[in-house]
Structure prediction request, 461 residues.
Amino acid sequence: MSILFWESPFALPWENLTGFPVTSTIRAFDWGPMVCRRNVVVMKLPKFFRHLIGLLVLFPGLGLAIDHHQLGWETCASKRHFWGMQTNSGQLKGEVPPGNGRQYARDRVVDVRHVKIDFTPDFKRRSISGNVMIRFSPIAEAIDEISLDAVDLDIKKVESARKIKTWDNDDKKLLIVFSDKVKAGEVIEVSISYEAQPEDGLYFRTREMGYPKGDDHFWTQGEPEKHRYWFPGYDYPNERFTSEVICHVPEGMTFLSNGRLVNEETVEGVTTFHWKQEKEHVNYLISAVGGHLEKLEGRHGSLPLAFYTPPSEFAEARNSFRDTEKILSFLEKEIGVPFPWAKYYSVCVSDFVAGGMENTSITTLTTGTLFSSDTENLRSSFRLNAHEATHQWFGDLLTCKDWSQLWLNEGFATYFTHLYEEEKNGTDEMLYGLYRDAGGFGQQGRKAHRMARLQRPHGTI
Ligand SMILES: [Zn+2]
Prediction:
């Protein structure tokens, strides 16, 4: 099975971190509609012009977040992040990044093999206590220390079968120093016990905070580098590993995470959920959502589907998720690769940071995407649904190595949403959607140009 990508002159450096062979066959003059059949991405020249605008959508003009405020709830976290990166990095101010302007992924010193997170939320204190086990192996050289991303974590204990000389955390990093060198290829584990009252990455929504009675829950958001606020780890996208998340919640609550449910057990009023992601994925795609949530079940062939909302909004769940099965069928046919994960769940949470976030096998969505039957002709969730579902392949199965390549995640998700729109509502609707997005791109480009001009000294325009 191969997925075919780009070739010079574009020569886009999207890393395939999944083990699939990525071969390049698409030449610039073949650019036409991206038609994916089986395991081949084909471009047809005769349709080039019709889809020229569509290609623009693949570029970083993902302006829905700012130019279409009324559609803000359709915006996924990646798009929001992308926009944030543009502004934070000063690109819109016409500044040149430091150095030679090139962006490189972080160097990997160790190969992270497996991460196991075991934690307990405290809904009253809005804090967590937990333990993280990280299994890793030095890649090229023997090491005597490992540095982990860990922001404002109260580290209680660090343990390993290898003797630890010392450890120290400075509110940004946890540095663990071993007494003896760990050889390249040698696999070891470290276990870190900690507490946290996260300011980012993990959010509580409780009655005390003003949310509806009976809706208490918490959720996480990893992208881009937020998980370091609630557990220590390798928080960068150029590393893949299997993971487990175990959570202990009060009886009556549920807990959701990536992969498949290994075990659920209640002892003395506490229910422990154990989820395992058996396919490698990246750190930012880990998800932990727990609390009072109601479930609607579905199925796509043998793939379990489920849709969760807080209880007070459950009546609107069926409307909002009714396209999911059709979307998955469409994407499997177009992409030619079966849905890559053990299940596909969607969970709506209160006051989410964006429209949706494509965590592997479990997408988080804003409750703003829910709508009642009364608004049937005005509202729809299928675009957000299609966008996040596409990310399960483009973004999750294939992941950007560095955030500078994030536009590829977003470009594919945006474009396939338009293709699904064509399947559902016809070509005119699809073309209008492409036109609308391209308009957003043009508008952003013009804004950037205007801002760049404003930054320059007089007389140099
Ligand atoms: Zn997205």
In short: Residues 106-291 form a domain with the Immunoglobulin-like fold (CATH 2.60.40.1730).
